[in-house]
Amino acid sequence: MTIDVLEHVDLADGATLSRYWQHQPVVLKQAVDTQALVPDPEILRDILTQTDLPARLITGEEGGQFTLKHGPFDRFDPPKGPWTVLIQALEHLFPEYDALRRQMLWLPSWRFEDCMLSWASHGGSVGRHFDQFSVFLVQLNGRRRWELGPEAQASSPLLANQPLALVGPATPDLTIVVEPGDVVYLPPRVVHHGVALDPDCMTLSIGFRAPDIGQILEIALEHCDATSAWLRFNDPDLGVRRGPAEITHRDLAHLDRLIAQFTEDRAKMASILATRVTSPYLDNPPEADLGQAEAMALIEDDGQFELDPGTRMAYFERTIFINGEHIGDQAPDAILQLADTRAITSRTIRALEPSWRNHIVTLLTDGGLQPAEDAD
User: Fold this and answer.
1) Which of 89, 238, 329, 368 lies 20 to 30 A from 176 at CA?
2) What is the span of the domain harbouring residue 354?
């Protein structure tokens, strides 16, 4: 597998990056200005001990035994030897991370999963592994050596007796040292192994959703209604079989046609996908500190609002889905624009029909929509 190393390409360059998306890895040299993106280690310690964000502490080196501990932690004292801390969903706390992933307008916004920070000591690593989703690895602080490739197969064995899903050593397709501002893009199933070369090595992983068929079928079951009862297994052409207990290929063909009938309803299929991909990453909703009267007062002023980083919004034709829920049909352009830009003005809200304006008020009171930070 050939892995290109490109210069003068940033995350907004969809014309270039769309050629690599889901196809092959690429390394982007100095693609991100990281000056405002590096968190203070003391702030990270506070996050580990004072918030409920999913976090993991991993120790170990390739060829040895890894250990894994899940947060939150009562206290965080860096262990002896190489260690790595992974903190998920940091876009909830760092608006600059949310702004970074929003630069990628060439990607469907509903594909975004979360921004995870890897904070490591010298020699820290999470082992050689592969993911089932696409990820952009943005080097924020310190240097990291990456071994990239080959591509894992369904038959690729995992190492036994490890707390992580690791694979054994293999000859990489590219070995490269990345510095702050460099980005590594990895499509699904590409084996990678990163080792921190400096203390306080920090890598931001911008991950993207890739629901598996089991997750999609689980949502599909929830969309079965009274009309689904009319779609039943029928076999008008029995054909010849070895005996009465045999399931034949003809029977499976009947099943194929039944499933095809179910998937012909494009609106239902869109609802199944949208329900899954707009489900919030975190169980706990954003803080809501606005009452309805306060929300209405804000709307009466001339201001701007932005969707909370944790709010997931998508649409099919003019049907709107927010945080795993079907909100409404025949949405006006202003609501579609809110989904696309994640921003809306109070003047636009006031011009909405009452039913859609009520949805916006609910978003405000639930914390899913908030006054823009630079609003007066």
Assistant:
1) 89
2) 292-371
Six token digits for residue 121:
């000591």
Q: Are residues 235 and 166 in the same domain?
A: no
Give pLDDT, residue 114.
97
Nearest to 151 by CA among 318, 42, 1, 328: 1
Peptide bond into 150 cis (omega under 30): yes
My answer on whether 249 and 361 are in the same domain is no
- Do 196 and 225 fall into the same domain? no
Q: What is this structure's pTM?
A: 0.92
Identity at 36, one-letter amino acid code: A
Per-residue pLDDT at 376 exceeds 60 = no
Which structure tokens are listed for 187?
Answer: 């499509």
What SS3 state is found at 339? helix
Query: 7 phi and psi, to 5 degrees?
Result: -115, 160
The whole-angstrom separation of Cα 176 and Cα 148 is 8
